[in-house]
Write a structure and sequence with these properties.
disordered N terminus, 8-stranded antiparallel β-sheet, signal, Beta-lactam/transpept-like, Beta-lactamase, 13 strands, 401 residues, Beta-lactamase family protein, alpha+beta, 3-stranded antiparallel β-sheet, Beta-lactam-related, AmpC-like
Length: 401
């Protein structure tokens, strides 16, 4: 991380937010070592599971439960000084609750609405890894393949497997480094390609030997994005649309690298420093397959359920992806294969460049929780994750019982 000096301050904000978004964007986990579990991919003739858009539960949740949920969200927003938030809770057989709270833009006095499109930052990783696992299910690749079969120049590339990239045990150095920040400072509005981002990840000193530890690193997921493009022969965004967004009817979700493509009106992101909320410029292209996706509240619900249930994958693949370990960051109990675990909830967080997000599914009750907030890098906590935990606690102890 760069030192805090006036010379690098504008870049430091973007760089720190990116690292948080991937890791906080925020954050892996334990997966079986190669040889312990068959990760060779399914038969080439196998077809990935197909799904349609899951419907939201009918009706609204009881008023007293809605009140408890709103109070929990309000308390988190007040504690961390969050300008605005959109959140939802969906419980099968009981109903739904969605809310828009606070301001999307402080400067323009623009209120949050439930249909706004939000950056979801590292939740993008869960989409990217899902596509990798789909390709493994179809026999198009093996999770035991090494990254040098697809991308040249990665340190230890002949040892690092695709599974290790997905579960954050590769040991790769990250692309958000001095060289990248120096380049970015020259033109903060430049729209980076995935190939350009990955160029900053080649030839770096490793953080540790492949498989020796678990450490959340954005470069891992961007390299997976390159694998997806190599195997399919198509751009990442096209594969995403074909395999996930279109089948699930996620019309409010997109992979956006040019900020001018972001649907308006939309929220402004804020960075917290010394108790002050400062608006952050938006350049999603610097996140790539690790964090450049945007989504809406209801599309978040759809993804929470799809991710948590493994609806797009073969059952044995979902079992593999759910095997996790504690890691330093971001705030999960455990991090698995492109998916985090907190109690009985599986999903993903995101943070960076002024935004935090949380999207989770409860594997016991079938409930889904989604929280989007326009504040990142609060030194006290990850606000959206704190809100998710607070809402989950209401369901566990409040009128939702």
């Amino acid at each position: 991380m760069l030192h805090h000096t006036d010379t690098v301050r504008p870049i430091r904000l973007a760089g720190v937010a990116l690292l948080a978004a991937a890791g906080l964007l925020l954050t892996g986990c334990t997966s079986p070592a190669s040889g312990d579990t068959d990760t060779s991919g399914g038969d080439a003739s196998a077809e990935t599971a197909t799904v349609t858009r899951p419907a939201a539960p009918e009706g609204e949740l009881p008023e007293d439960l809605q009140g408890e949920l709103q109070a929990a969200l309000d308390e988190v927003m007040a504690e961390y000084g969050v300008p605005g938030a959109a959140a939802g809770v969906w419980i099968p057989g009981e109903g739904s609750w969605t809310t828009a709270a606070g301001l999307a833009s402080i400067e323009n006095d623009l209120e949050v609405t439930t249909d706004m499109q939000w950056p979801i930052r590292s939740i993008t990783k869960s989409y990217t890894v899902t596509m990798l696992l789909q390709l493994a299910d179809e026999g198009e690749l093996s999770l035991d393949d090494t990254i040098d079969q697809y991308v040249d120049g990665v340190t230890n590339g002949d040892q690092i497997t695709l599974l290790q990239l997905a579960n954050m045990s590769s040991g790769n150095g990250d692309y958000v480094n001095e060289a990248f920040l120096e380049e970015f400072q020259k033109d903060p509005d430049k729209v980076y390609t995935l190939e350009e981002l990955n160029s900053f990840a080649v030839g770096l000193e490793p953080q540790f030997a492949p498989g020796a530890e678990y450490r959340y690193t954005n470069a891992n997921t961007n390299l997976i994005g390159a694998v997806i493009e190599e195997v399919t022969g198509k751009p990442y965004a096209e594969v995403l649309n074909e395999r996930i967004l279109e089948p699930l009817g996620q019309t409010g979700t997109a992979y956006i690298t040019d900020v001018s493509d972001w649907a308006e009106p939309h929220p402004v992101g804020y960075f917290v420093e010394n108790g002050e909320a400062t608006p952050q410029p938006e350049n999603p292209s610097i996140l790539g397959a690790a964090g450049s996706m945007f989504s809406t509240l209801d599309d978040g619900r759809v993804w929470a359920e799809t991710l948590g249930t493994g609806a797009l994958l073969l059952p044995e693949t979902q079992e593999l992806r759910a095997l996790g370990n504690p890691i330093p960051t971001p705030p999960y109990d455990r991090y698995a294969v492109g998916m985090g675990e907190t109690g009985d909830w599986f999903g993903h967080n995101g943070e960076g460049l002024g935004f935090t997000a949380a999207t989770f599914h409860n594997t016991e009750t079938g409930a889904n929780i989604v929280v989007y907030m326009n504040e990142s890098n609060n030194p006290a906590a990850h606000p959206a994750d704190q809100a998710f935990r607070a809402l989950a606690a209401v369901l566990e102890t409040g009128s939702g019982q």
